[in-house]
């Protein structure tokens, strides 16, 4: 199953929905596709869809999917890669009224560099991306939370030695 999600912001992402729907119609995509269409006004004709899913429904659809096709939203990308899903990311672009700027291109590049997602900045290459992703081996997602906490901890300990500083051990 393929899960297509465009996020929950106020911006449409008709291009992605239309392209995916057309690929199903043309037989390029043969498996079942569920779409979360968000604020888009395109109505899919060949895929099951809903504007928004609650958290449980969203997680269930993502869990059942083999492939997630998503906009360049950080939250959705991280959720998908944490679940070990083969993730294709298509950034929203300002020139199509899909966002206020093109920051999703930069996010996409960073996730691609870490080998966590398959980057598809040009929607016309989505068929190729779907073909390539099947055999691509992605890196496992590793949270940076522990290293961030350790860095903060080290910083707090380092300022303990400064005159007049609070003893960290008594605060703990």
Question: Can you describe what's shown?
Answer:
By secondary structure, the protein is α/β, with parallel strands linked by helices. The protein is built from 7 helices and 6 strands. Strands 3-2-1-4-5-6 form a 6-stranded parallel β-sheet, sandwiched between helices.
SSE inventory with pairings:
Elements: E1 2-5, H1 14-25, E2 33-36, E3 48-50, H2 55-64, E4 67-70, H3 74-82, E5 86-89, H4 103-113, E6 118-119, H5 126-133, H6 145-160, H7 168-171
Parallel strand pairs: 1-2, 1-4, 2-3, 4-5, 5-6
Structural class, from secondary structure content?
alpha/beta
CA(first)-CA(last) distance: 48 Å
Order of helices and strands: EHEEHEHEHEHHH
How would a textbook summarize the main sheet? 6 strands, parallel
- Biggest sheet: strand arrangement: 3-2-1-4-5-6
What is the C-alpha radius of gyration, as a whole number of Å? 20 Å
Number of separate helices: 7
Low-pLDDT runs: none
User: What is the averaged pLDDT score?
Assistant: 88
Shape from CA axes?
elongated
Question: What's the count of strands?
Answer: 6
Helix content: 40-55%
Beta-strand percentage range: 5-15%
């Amino acid at each position: 199953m393929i899960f297509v999600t465009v996020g929950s912001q106020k911006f449409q992402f008709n291009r992605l929905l239309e392209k995916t729907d057309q690929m199903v119609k043309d037989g390029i995509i043969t498996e079942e596709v569920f779409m979360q269409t968000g604020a888009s006004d395109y109505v899919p004709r060949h895929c099951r869809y809903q504007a928004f899913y609650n958290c449980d429904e969203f997680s269930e659809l993502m869990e059942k999917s083999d492939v997630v096709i998503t906009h360049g939203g950080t939250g959705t990308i991280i959720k998908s890669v944490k679940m070990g899903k083969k993730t294709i990311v298509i950034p929203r672009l300002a020139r199509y009224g899909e966002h206020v700027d093109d920051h999703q291109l930069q996010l996409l590049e960073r996730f691609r560099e870490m080998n966590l997602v398959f980057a598809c900045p040009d929607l016309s290459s989505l068929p190729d991306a779907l073909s390539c992703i099947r055999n691509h081996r992605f890196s496992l997602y590793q949270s940076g939370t522990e290293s961030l906490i350790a860095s903060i901890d080290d910083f707090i300990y380092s300022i303990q030695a400064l005159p007049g500083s609070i003893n960290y051990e008594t605060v703990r």
